[in-house]
Amino acid sequence: MREPYEVLGVARNASQDDIKRAFRRLAKKLHPDANTSDPKAQDKFAELNTAHEILSDPEARGKYDRGEIDGEGKPKFQGYPGGGAGFGGAGFGQGGPGGFRRTGPNGETIFESFHFDDDSAARRGRQGANSGFEDVFSDLFGRFRSGGGRASSEAAPKGGDIEIVVPVPLERVVEGGPVKVALPGGSTVEIKVPAGVSEGHRLRLKGKGEASPFGGAPGDAYVVVHYATHPQFRVDGVDLRLDLAVPLQDAVLGGKLRVPTLGGSVDLTIPAWTQNGRTFRLRGKGMPNTHGGHGDLLATARIALPDDRDPELEELMRKRRKAAE
């Protein structure tokens, strides 16, 4: 697992705005929908989301910078003297499957508060060298037990949280409304996204995450909003970009064209002698911004020849070519 700063391509002193911009740029580049031929696309996108989740949360970022969690957001074991993994077991206390870290009444880790006194040394002599460790595990897991050895749902740890990236159509982003979310188990739920929701926004579905292996409450599912690819518009920050087909006669003589927007078509006046590549700005027809307004729609003229061959137009072009020679 690479470190989050490397995944996002930002410096360790990067601002929250830098982190947000890097995530939005890479999310478009690495999204599985845009990399269907890459078998590792899903893993790369998941790594990006994990890095963003850590660095966009000041508390989690601080824990990572202090070495309290790793690049996956899992706790690192720090209580054993010397800073090693402790007790010869790779992964013990590392936050992996079954990993944990327990604190004593004064906030110290269990390995700091546990010690062998004379009595415990005597017990080791009678019961074997691992007796003291067995006492530790018995105390740790005893509070999770109820009748018949089954885990108590009141005390057992909850299941893991999951993250689901959901493509949201741009029209739904502007208007807000229901979006269906497919859960890992095969079921679907319908959520309502707010109007003007930003890309990368997270919505919590309580209890829709992984089941607890100890019989506790299930984890939560976090729905991450991703702007779905649109057949006409390209998102550029809070602006939208559009290639606008301009008939040759309108480019030469001028005219009016109907231009599509997310809120319906509008009229645009095309001046005479409009060059190919000229961009027209339709103010307020873009994506919602953080100030309650909207960005702009940037329509770039693309000169379009007639669908059918026009002999008169061809003859005119021959005359102009000959005149220019």
TrEMBL record:
CDD domains: DnaJ, DnaJ_C. Residues 80-101 have a biased composition (Gly residues). Pfam families: DnaJ, DnaJ_C. Residues 50-101 are annotated as: Disordered. Residues 3-68 form the J domain. Residues 54-75 have a biased composition (Basic and acidic residues). SUPFAM superfamilies: Chaperone J-domain (SSF46565), HSP40/DnaJ peptide-binding domain (SSF49493). PANTHER family: CHAPERONE DNAJ-DOMAIN SUPERFAMILY PROTEIN, DNAJ HOMOLOG 1, MITOCHONDRIAL-RELATED. This is J domain-containing protein. The lineage of its organism: Bacteria, Pseudomonadati, Pseudomonadota, Alphaproteobacteria, Hyphomicrobiales.
